[in-house]
């Protein structure tokens, strides 16, 4: 099992962020979802809320999204959102 995830965050304009991460959290339609390496394949609708990506070196990046979907397959996470606000980062 891989220790990291490949993550792509895309909005209507194009790719917002791409990189390696240790964890992804997102506001799924039926509750908060957390993704770690080795997660089973999933396709989930996203509601408005905060997408958080714990990277290998940048700390935690987060974006407020207005909805979209998330897919996970073979340690690759693709997040496609309708709209998002500016990202923030922290070292936590």
UniProtKB/TrEMBL annotation:
Keyword Membrane: yes
One matching Pfam family: ATP-synt_DE_N
Compartmental location: Cell membrane
Domain called ATP synthase F1 complex delta/epsilon subunit N-terminal: residue spans: 5-83
Keyword annotations of the record: ATP synthesis, Cell membrane, CF(1), Hydrogen ion transport, Ion transport, Membrane, Transport
Domain of life: Bacteria
Record's bilayer topology term: Peripheral membrane protein
GO cellular component: plasma membrane; proton-transporting ATP synthase complex
InterPro entries referenced in this protein's UniProt entry, alphabetically: ATP_synth_F1_dsu/esu, ATP_synth_F1_dsu/esu_N, ATPsynth_dsu/esu_N
Assembly notes: F-type ATPases have 2 components, CF(1) - the catalytic core - and CF(0) - the membrane proton channel. CF(1) has five subunits: alpha(3), beta(3), gamma(1), delta(1), epsilon(1). CF(0) has three main subunits: a, b and c.
Family: Belongs to the ATPase epsilon chain family.
PANTHER family attached to this UniProt entry: ATP SYNTHASE DELTA/EPSILON CHAIN, ATP SYNTHASE EPSILON CHAIN, CHLOROPLASTIC
Protein name per its UniProtKB record: ATP synthase epsilon chain
Natural source organism: Cellulomonas uda
Lineage, broadest ranks: Bacteria, Bacillati, Actinomycetota, Actinomycetes, Micrococcales
Gene: atpC
């Amino acid at each position: 099992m891989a220790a990291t995830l490949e993550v792509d965050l895309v909005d209507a304009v194009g790719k917002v962020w791409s990189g390696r991460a240790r964890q992804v959290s997102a506001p799924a339609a039926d509750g908060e979802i957390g993704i770690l390496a080795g997660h089973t394949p999933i396709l989930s609708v996203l509601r408005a809320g905060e997408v958080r990506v714990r990277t290998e070196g940048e700390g935690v990046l987060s974006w407020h999204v207005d909805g979209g979907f998330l897919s996970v397959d073979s340690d690759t996470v693709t997040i496609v959102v309708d709209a998002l606000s500016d990202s923030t980062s922290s070292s936590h």
